[in-house]
Amino acid sequence: MQWTQVTVKTESEAVEAVSFILNDLGATGVKIEDAKDFEKLRPGKFGAHGEIIDPNDIPHLEKGAAVTAYYPQNIFVPEILPTIKQRVLALKEFGLDPGAGEVVTSAVSDENWATAWKKYYHPVRVTRHLTVVPDWEEYQAAQDDERVIYLDPGMAFGTGTHPTTKLMLQALEMTLRGNETVLDVGTGSGVLSIAARLLGAAKVNAYDVDDVAVKSALDNIELNPKAQPIKVAANDLLAGIHEQVDVIVANILAEIIIPLVPQAFENLKNNGYFLCSGIIADKIQVVTEAIENQGFVIEEKMQIKDWYGVIARKPLPDE
Ligand SMILES: C[S@@+](CC[C@H](N)C(=O)[O-])C[C@H]1O[C@@H](n2cnc3c(N)ncnc32)[C@H](O)[C@@H]1O
């Protein structure tokens, strides 16, 4: 089994709180390194086996502290990084100094990730009409009504095969009829935006908070002339966006979907659809409550493996 290692560089006083945040987001364990612990070790002290300890021989931090967490494969770390950064920096509000709050991931190095997954990534018929094809593979559509999405997701999330993406591809296929306006929040590789256009949406705007994702989405849109044009921009959810669209789709974590719910309601036309996934079993109730309390009608709850998706509709005023 592979693990992703996430290290938060912080200060001694914040190590407990940072450990709590990392565990709360699904870490299976944390390791704490604290320069203050080494200050207590004096040269010449005896260790447990009678050896003389010279702290300088032990790899240690010269200053500050670092908390390292380990995440199992079913947690997609790039997705939780913005939440980690946000919650660590917010510790200031509780009177704790989080230091730089710098977050570093390793174990699955960029280089490994960029190449290792390619071995397992082949054309996949994800839904009745949508097939995702790696850009470097030759593929011939088997039916006239099959739509092919060419992708090279690189470091961004969205090969099209993750259950959460699949749920939203299915939801788009169930919802779109043609000529809709669509907002794709947390676009990652751009896969959902490309799918929306290929399924007949007239206009799609895609947003992501991560510049790597924005670049990846733009590159993938280049690979799919039939899906062009799609507008892509860096944005935090729908902050500052005021539109009236037919469909909003978002595959993000439950914690991030909840603040999106009122923004989605505001940006949808009556009878418009809010499609969301990225929700684990523990969170489905709180997300559906937030959606219903906002005034949406839940039309479908979908599930693949441990992941849930929701199709919600903004009702007509007289409903
Ligand atoms: C699970 S990926 C989904 C990618 C793609 N849409 C898919 O379905 O495969 C979630 C994406 O949401 C982005 N994201 C996370 N927080 C965000 C926020 N506050 N605003 C916009 N995008 C965000 C992440 O950078 C990531 O690219």
From TrEMBL:
Subcellular compartments: Cytoplasm
Residues that bind S-adenosyl-L-methionine: 165, 186, 208, 251
Membrane spanning stretches: none
SUPFAM superfamilies reported for this sequence: S-adenosyl-L-methionine-dependent methyltransferases
Annotated keywords: Cytoplasm, Methyltransferase, Ribonucleoprotein, Ribosomal protein, S-adenosyl-L-methionine, Transferase
Source superkingdom: Bacteria
Catalytic activity entry: L-lysyl-[protein] + 3 S-adenosyl-L-methionine = N(6),N(6),N(6)-trimethyl-L-lysyl-[protein] + 3 S-adenosyl-L-homocysteine + 3 H(+)
Major localization listed first in the record, in broad terms: cytoplasm
A GO molecular function held by the record: protein-lysine N-methyltransferase activity
EC number: 2.1.1.-
Matches recorded under HAMAP family: Methyltr_PrmA (MF_00735)
Protein name per UniProt: Ribosomal protein L11 methyltransferase
Species of the source: Paucilactobacillus vaccinostercus DSM 20634
